[in-house]
């Protein structure tokens, strides 16, 4: 029976000059990462939402992720990842291989593919009530649209001009107005699961 406690490097040698040989100890940073990964994965086993969470954990480049079942001819799980946000700007993720590699190390053996969606600009034209058409209110309109998209946008979502209008009007600062989607003849924009709507040209 070995007298060496678990976790101690058995190749190290104690001599009059101190401890020699053995392997480098785990750094505090590496230990913290390993502990956090264990805690995060304690309740993750591949249920709905777990793959998206793993994708966010995989890289600081990933800020949001979504899952879509039965993608492609083989019915793989599609994981869409993006960086940034709608307030400061959305960025496609370049390191998809890194995301895939991380998920493979923590997830059960499931057929999946990682992609970053194409950005689908929404180009709304907003007409405020004349008395409320000020520079300050125009800035408020921009901020509210960005905030609304940050809270609701995802691949495959549908937006209408009415939905955007409702996001702007508070009955006080902005009491009314009209919104049109400049590049839509139907007043709505539909996206696929391969596209993410973002705020484009606002007029």
Which helices and strands occur, and which strands form pairs?
Layout: E1 13-15, E2 18-20, H1 28-40, H2 50-58, E3 64-71, E4 76-85, E5 89-92, H3 96-106, E6 112-115, E7 118-122, E8 124-128, H4 135-152, E9 158-160, H5 161-168, E10 177-181, E11 188-190, E12 195-199
Parallel strand pairs: 4-6, 7-12
Antiparallel strand pairs: 1-2, 3-4, 4-5, 8-10, 9-11
Describe the structure.
The chain has 203 residues and is α+β, with helices and mostly antiparallel strands. It has two domains: 28-116, no CATH class; 119-199, no CATH class. Helices cover 29% and strands 29% of the residues. It is built from five helices and twelve strands. It has helices at residues 28-40, 50-58, 96-106, 135-152, 161-168, and strands spanning 13-15, 18-20, 64-71, 76-85, 89-92, 112-115, 118-122, 124-128, 158-160, 177-181, 188-190, 195-199. Strands 3, 4, 5 and 6 form a four-stranded mixed β-sheet that branches. A hairpin with a 3-residue loop joins strand 4 (76-85) and strand 5 (89-92). Helix 2 crosses helix 3. The radius of gyration is 25 Å and the shape is elongated.
Please, what is the oligomeric state? single chain
User: What is the succession of H and E elements?
Assistant: EEHHEEEHEEEHEHEEE
Which structural class matches the secondary elements?
alpha+beta
For the largest beta-sheet, the strand count, sense and barrel status come to: 4 strands, mixed
Approximate shape: elongated
Distance between the termini: 77 Å
Average pLDDT taken over every residue = 88
What is the rounded Rg? 25 Å
* Uncertain stretches: none
Count of the separate structural domains: 2
Strand content: 25-35%
